[in-house]
Amino acid sequence: MKGRQRKSSDYRAPRTSCPLCGSAGIGPRYRIARYARPFTVDRCAACGFMFMNPIFSEKTIQELYAREYYTGEADYSYQDERAIEPFAMHVWRARMKRISRWAPPGNFLDVGAAFGGLMKAAARHFTPYGIELSEYSGKHALSLFPGRVHIGTLENHPFEAGFFSAITMIELIEHLPDPATAVAECFRLLGPGGLLVVQTANMEGRQARVLGDRYEYFMPGHLSYFSMENLTGLLKRCGFARVKVFYPVEFGLVPKLRKSRQAFRTFADYRAWLRISWYHAKSKVRCGRFAMTSSMVVFAMKPGPSGDE
Looking at the DSSP assignment, which residues form a beta bridge with residue 101? Predict the structure, then answer.
C-alpha cells in the first residue's frame, strides 16, 4: 500500500540527537511508505541505533492499537492471540519454563500483555501481572486477572520498586519511543537477582541488512530498532550484571513447530516445518557481532543482594 501524504498532526517534532546515546550524528536511513502513514527511520552513526524520526504523536500511537489492530481491519495489524491460544500456549509454556529456571520465585510482569496469554502460562511459576497500552486487549486481560493488569504504560503504572522477580518485554521494546527510560524502569521494578527478558530484532543481523527497507520489521508501531551490541550495552548501562543473548529464541524448535499447526488445514501444510526448521538452524550461525538471521532474545540479570549475578 502506498503511503498517504504526511499530516503534521500525526507526528511529533523531529529529534535532533540519538535517543539512546545522545549523539547528534544522526541521519535518514530508510523511508517506509507502504503503510497509510509513511515514516522515516534514522540511524545513529555513533551507536548504530535506528529509530523513527519524526516519531508519531501520542494520539496516533494510541490509535494504532484499537480494535482494528487485532481484527485485521487496519493496514497495520496483529493476530488476536485468543483465536490460537491452544497452539501459542506451547511457546508460552516453553518460555516460562526457561524463565523460571533463571528468576527467583515471586511476581512476574509482562509488559505488552495483550490478552493475557503469557500471563496464563506464567501462573504455573509466578504470580502474574501485566501492563498493556491497548484498552481493547487490556480489558480482556484484566477480566482474567482482576486488579493485576494496568492499562497504560511503564511511565504511569502503579507498581512499587523491587516488586517483581521477572519482567518480559516480548516483541515490545521496539514499540517504545524512549526504550532507555523503559529499561531503567524495569531495572527499578525488579528485586535483587531479578530477570528481564527482551525479544526484538537484531538490525545488524544479515537478514535485516540484506532486506534493507523491505525488512518486515519496519512497520508503523515499531519506533525503535536495536542491534545486539547496542541493546546489550543499554542493559549494562542500566545496571544489569549478566547479559546473555539467545538465537533465535531461548527455547527449542519443537514448541515453534507445535504452534505453527494453528494455520494448518491439510497434510501438505506440514511442509512449512521445513522452512521453520531451516530458519531456526540458520539462526544458530553467528560469530561475534555477525548473525545469520535477525531474531534474538536477551536475558539480563539484576545483581543479587550482595552484588553478585
Answer: none
Q: What residues contact 143, with CB distance under 8 A and at least 6 apart?
A: none
Rounded to two decimals, the pTM is 0.95
Residue type, 55: I
* pLDDT for 307: 60
Describe the chain by its helix, strand, coil percentages, rounded to 5: 35, 20, 40
Q: Which three cell numbers, joined as nine digits, stand for 215?
A: 525488512
C-alpha cell at 103: 528468576
Between the CA of residue 105 and those of 99, 108, 124, 126, 202, what are the distances in Å? 10, 9, 11, 6, 30
Residue 8 has pLDDT above 70, yes or no: no
Instruction: Work out whether the CA dihedral 8, 61, 215, 202 comes out positive or negative.
Output: positive
Please write the tens of the pLDDT for every residue from 181-235. 999 999 999 999 999 999 999 999 999 999 999 999 999 999 999 999 999 999 9
Report how far apart, in Å, the C-alpha atoms of 158 and of each of 109, 155, 172, 306 are. Answer: 12, 9, 19, 28
Cell triple for 87: 497452539
Per domain, the residue ranges of the chain are 8-71, 81-301
User: What DSSP designation does 306 have?
Assistant: T
Q: What is the CATH architecture assignment of 81-301?
A: 3-Layer(aba) Sandwich (3.40)
- Could you tell me the pLDDT band of residue 3, with boundaries at 50, 70 and 90? very low
CA distance 225 to 221: 11
- Which of 308, 297, 165, 162 shows the shortest CA–CA distance to 235? 297
Q: Tens of pLDDT along 299-308?
A: 999 998 866 6
